[in-house]
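During the reporting period the student researcher (J.K.) took over the structure-prediction task from the postdoctoral fellow and processed the backlog of single-chain submissions. One of the processed entries is reproduced below for the supervisory committee.
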Amino acid sequence: MSIDTSKGSPSMDYAQHVETYETFLRLTKYGIVFVVVILAGMKFFLA
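J.K. obtained the following structure tokens:
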């Protein structure tokens, strides 16, 4: 992922910003998988 830093503030730590965003995306994927597993378990055990 690349960010155009030419219009941004020079005091911004863009590398840290990108790392935080990638962590957010990774945790979102794990959260979606977790919810799908829970729903599949509910369908299997509660049906």
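The committee noted the following: The first helix runs from residue 14 to 46.
J.K. will present the remaining backlog at the next meeting.
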